[in-house]
Amino acid sequence: MIRFSDISFSYRTTDDSVAALAGVSFEVQAGEQVAVLGANGSGKSTLVRLVNGLLLPDSGAVSVDDIDTRDHVRTRELRERVGMVFQRPDDQIVTTSVEDDVAFGPENLGLPRAEIRERVDEAIAAVGLTGLERREPHLLSGGQKQRLAMAGALAMRPAYLVLDEPASMLDPAGRTEVLAIVERLRATGTGVMHVTHDLADVADADRAVVLDHGSIVFDGAIGELLDRADRLGEWGLELPPVARLAWALRSAGAPLPASALDAETIVGSLWG
Amino acid sequence: MSVPVPFGQYVPGDSPVHRVDPRTKLGLALAFTVLVFSAHGWSAMAIAAIATLGVIAISGVPWRLAARGLVPILWLLVFTLVVNSLLWRPASAMLVVGPLGISGPGLARGMFFSSRIVLLVMGTSLVTLTTSPVALTDALSSLMRPLRIVRVPVDDVAMMFSIALRFIPTTAEEAEKIIVAQTARGAVFDEGGPVARARAWVPVLVPLFVNLFRRADDLAVAMESRCYTGEGRTRLHEPHMRAADWVLLVVGVTAALAAAILLS
Amino acid sequence: MGLTLAEIGYRYSVAAAPASEPALAGVSLTVERGELALVLGATGSGKSTLLRIAAGLLAPTEGTGAIDGAPLARGSARGVVGLVFQDPEAQLFAETIADDVAFGPRNLGATSQEAAAAAREALERVGLDPDTYGGRSPFGLSGGEARRAAIAGVLAMRPRYLLLDEPTAGLDARGREAVRTLIRAERERSGIVVVSHSAAEFLSTADRVLLLSCGRAAFEGSGAELIAHPAAFRRAGLSAPDLLRVQELAAERGVALGSFTLDPDAVARTLAAAGGWGR
């Protein structure tokens, strides 16, 4: 499990200190898909960098499967357990071919060549880039680049994957590709922490945590969050139109399950 | 979208020349250079020429592309030819035009030196024509390995080259976008004296560099997150010399040196 | 009058891509002052090429363009048509935001004072208080603020037509709302063309909509017409906004709906009434 225990963190500059997070506590269990939502400036990007020890909390503790992020000796072990995918696809791709970039992580672990090959092929297949192994990254579309970044993380065979706004710089086609892979991760039992400001990205998550100005203001089922349409604006979030429709129908008494958030399911539930 | 190709030379292919290990090619290119420089007679030059033309033919690289490297030095070839013709052994001039005369020995000497330049350029460019930039940097870093003994951070340097190569096309695209955006705001880059022109590039260079620094930070974060420490790395693709590569290297170097010594 | 593009075609140079399809073929678009035209399409459909032609940065290989009657030629649109590129924050470079916003007017020949005044006005129009933001570095801004500062840099040139390429992409809810607000305000003084891959945001307010697919027009009409016929999205290889899809599916099942709309509450009321729920 990824555990945040009463985390506080401030960015310190020469004459100022900006509190990014205060008293944040929550967990991501093994195999769970948790959505972490918040507007820009809510502290969510700081949270991402705290997960694998890129930043250390001022107070409180962060641990992944009981490895504390402060434990220098076990940093590599920790970073094998939790893979990271960031917002800008180009800024995660290190080298000049798809397969070499996916191999980067396993190479860093000093694995034997045969095992690197196996992991690379497996990860490339998992993200649907088979056939593009020798392609140069600048020739890939945005969605393909981000899938490459995901393959790079998956090649480490992590128990958890943290995604920091993975789809925000992509066009709708790219977004669909990336979200499809996140959905497929469910079957592999990989825990997912999906950080985003867009509720439409995380409608399928098991749980939602909302950050507002550095504190957690909601931690519960996604369905419950969608029923709080009134508070979302305060937190800098927006309900996607179809989710608002679903909420309004439920409020009117329609027998619509909270999980119904796409057109087919909504109409199907109400009119068969 | 058109993007500048790094090093401008690599022509992808699967010929026997492409498949030779880059280190063998580098070694052979070095031996070739020695041969061409130490040649005093046409026979050695002829051998070098035949070898060059033969390799180009086997490599499948179009002649037009192979000769492209000569274009920037065309002036040098003409200059060499002309200066030697006019100033070498002027006493035996064949053709006299006013105060200047073209001498036979001079012309021959000019052609000899020009041929040397041509062969040098075409012979060595065969390495970059038939080896991808990535394979070349891998080969260079493997050749640098002995420098580890004197504490040169060879692996880090190799990683830096590799990352630089990776970002050349991406950065070029970004520069183009910024140039277009500033042009749309009325910026002009081709007017005024040198100072004005230099200043005109500030609105392109500043954002480009700011972006590059941010990108470097983000890339470092991504690399650390994938456990990069610079040490203890294994490789998926390790360039390794096959028997054929060794044989080719030894035979080629021996032949070149023999020709250089015997025929000079 | 207005910004008119008629039967525009664009083909990349034959040397670069000899056998490829043209980037644009037979596309027409008109926008008058006070109107908003929305150009939709998938990546590669030709939307950005169309914008560059409309801004006079590219000359079309076929067709003609005109701005308020004057022929549109390469370079003639400077100062008259303002183009805000995708991720325009990349063009911020100056030491202060005020200087950066004044860059455009200066290039068009304004004096320092005129440019500074234009910059102030532009910053106000995008909702960035010039006294607070003017002296700050453009590099410390949040995503939404940087976006608006870049837009101000274009508005400062007082264009009669404003073209925006994916103006809300990559912003959070507050950022998108701020950009939508400033577009609504600008509409009163200029003709606006918005290129977007997210239809739902601008469709209800668009006077004209052009749906591009592989360089050709798959739909031309008003926003209301497209809303009423969501099938056009699919013909262009796009998905219709979810809310329209709900209405389409409900209509297929015989639910009595009026004309389609993009207002979720209105749709909810209609469906609730049809289903017999409601308080």
What would the keywords be for this entry?
heterotrimer, B: about 260 residues, two-stranded antiparallel sheet, 2 strands, flat, disordered N terminus, C: about 280 residues, four-stranded antiparallel beta sheet, 10 strands
Description:
The complex is a heterotrimer of chains A (272), B (264) and C (279). In chain A, 36% of the residues lie in helices and 24% in strands. Chain A is of the alpha/beta class. In chain A, strand 7, helix 6 and strand 8 form a beta-alpha-beta unit. In chain A, helix 3 (98-108) crosses helix 4 and helix 4 crosses helix 5 (142-154). In chain B, strand 1 (93-97) and strand 2 form a beta hairpin. The model of chain B is unreliable at 1-7 (pLDDT under 50). Chain B is mainly alpha-helical and 264 residues long. In chain C, the strands form 2 sheets. In chain C, strands 6-7-8-3-9-10 form a 6-stranded mixed β-sheet, with helices on both faces. Chain C has a 4-stranded antiparallel β-sheet with strand order 2-1-4-5, covered by helices on one side. Chain C is 37% helix and 20% strand. Chain C is globular, with a radius of gyration of 20 Å. The interface between A and B is medium-sized, with 41 and 29 residues.
End-to-end CA span of chain A: 40 Å
Structural class of chain A: alpha/beta
In the sheet with the most strands of chain B, the strands line up as 1-2
Query: Pair with the most extensive interface?
Result: A-C, 33 and 40 residues
Work out the helix count of chain A: 10
The major pleated sheet of chain B works out as: 2 strands, antiparallel
Oligomeric state, counting identical vs distinct chains = heterotrimer
Overall 3D shape of chain B: flat
On the 0-100 scale, what is the average pLDDT of chain B? 85
pLDDT under 50 segments of chain A (min length 5)? none
SSE-based structural type of chain B: mainly alpha
* Silhouette of chain A: globular
Proportion in helices of chain A: 25-40%
Compute the CA-based radius of gyration of chain B: 24 Å
Summed up, the domain count of chain B is: 2
